[in-house]
Design goal:
122 residues, 2 strands, 2 domains, 7% strand
Amino acid sequence: MNKLKTILFTVPVLIVLCAPVLAKPIQVNGIAAIVNNDVITELDLNKSANIRAIATGEKKSQELRQIVLNNLINDTLFGQLVAKKDINVTEDEVARSIAGVLHENRMTINSLKRELNSKGIT
């Protein structure tokens, strides 16, 4: 009877102690790139790659991830340069730029929103 008690006690203890060793670690959010002092996370990269794949119909691949990562690095560098040069863009300038894009593509703001929503971009 004592052997049975020992076994019944020992087995669960061993399972609890060994479980962390047997479990595979999962990466929650790693670093995809460091651009000067700014970090681009794997989560940022995955989200951007998914959006691009949906918007363009491209298949998800390492090549797509590399293109998107390069774009994120370039965007980050551009943002750093803008911040360094203290360049400010007004809401009016942004609105005029969007209006120009809408005009060139013969779209309304509502049709642009519908198009973006249909591609899963909000």
